[in-house]
Design a protein that fits this description.
292 residues; alpha/beta; Rossmann fold; 3 domains; 6-stranded mixed beta sheet; 4-stranded antiparallel beta sheet; 41% helix; binds adenosine-5'-diphosphate; binds magnesium ion
Length: 292
């Protein structure tokens, strides 16, 4: 099938501290296509190069060699292209709540769209749309960001990026440090954003369980390279290779594999809790001759 890519990395390499004793080759000739309208998850160990990679996608970092293309055009072709891509590809750093700094929640969310030069009415509309997508009550608009709870702060910070209506929204470890309820809220928000806008999303994560719930595509990053890329099924079917990298399949997959080995006739390829529940109910009904 023809891929409809919005961003393409072609041989992208990046080294920190080039020519110093502290030289680190963070990206080593990365080739990657980000498909339009999908949620792509970048997964890999700490230090594998995920954060560096996403910063090359909106020209915050310029590759030492190789190219990043946005809709076929080199984003680093000139200053104007590098500036334009920042509005099309919105990047939300890890722990984005540390970057809240305005006196009110409203002003914080409005900061990005204002910077883009939108008129006041458009800024206002974008702020309200983004707050709704992020699940933030407008009653909070007049508060100081510092009066918000941890989860609300995170949502306000993400709303600030969403308010620029980027074609590609990139979130670095969006659920890091949140409790299970906060994580679920974050996922709901990402799904709402994609469903409400049809835009492309890239999330960085090191949780297989999170990625299995959310992603259409997974790219496994290892030592500055893309080790595996594909659908959730395709990537988790490489379980031996993944295990060799110290990355396991989702917890629920391990449990259903163990049940299958013990004789429960569960189908292969169960990656989420809801799939597991459905399959277990099916097996139970089958065992009871449809009377379950
Ligand atoms: N600002 C920096 N200066 C020097 N080395 C860095 C810097 N940021 C990251 N690195 C190194 O680059 C490599 C990739 O890091 P990073 O992209 O942050 O990986 P990840 O996000 O997957 O944890 C690591 O070896 C890391 O130590
Ligand atoms: Mg990182």
């Amino acid at each position: 099938m023809e891929k409809n890519s919005i961003i393409e990395c072609r041989g992208v390499s990046f080294t920190y501290g080039s020519g110093t004793p502290f030289e680190v080759r963070a990206l080593d000739s990365v080739d990657l296509d980000i498909e339009k309208g999908l949620i792509t998850a970048l997964i890999g160990h700490t230090g594998s190069g995920k954060s560096t990679l996403i910063q090359t996608l909106n020209a915050l970092m310029k590759p030492d060699s190789g190219k990043v293309l946005y809709e076929g055009a080199d984003i680093n072709a000139n200053k104007a292209s590098a500036r334009d891509v920042r509005f099309k590809v919105g990047l939300c750093f890890q722990y984005p709540e540390h970057q809240l700094f305005e006196s009110t929640v409203y002003k914080d969310i409005a900061f990005g769209p204002k910077n883009m030069g939108l008129d006041e009415a458009s800024v206002d509309r974008n702020v309200r749309d983004a707050a709704a997508l992020a699940g933030l009550d407008e009653e909070l608009f007049g508060k100081s960001p510092f009066e918000l709870s941890g989860g609300q702060k995170r949502r306000a910070a993400i709303a600030g990026v969403m308010a620029m209506k980027p074609e590609v929204l990139i979130l670095d470890e969006p659920s890091a440090g949140l409790d299970p309820a906060g994580r679920r809220d974050t996922f709901d928000m990402i799904r709402r954003y994609r469903e409400g806008t049809g835009k492309t999303v890239i999330i960085v994560s090191h949780s297989m369980d999170d990625v299995a719930e959310l992603a259409d595509r997974i790219a496994v990053v290892r030592r500055g390279k893309i080790a595996i890329y594909g659908t959730v099924d395709e990537v988790f079917s490489h379980s031996a290779e993944m295990a060799g990298m110290g990355l396991s399949v989702p917890e629920v997959t391990r449990i259903t594999d163990a049940l299958r080995a013990a004789g429960v006739p569960l189908k292969h390829g169960i990656y989420t809790l809801s799939e597991a529940a459905e399959e277990l109910i099916r097996c139970y009904r089958q065992k009871n001759g449809g009377r379950g």
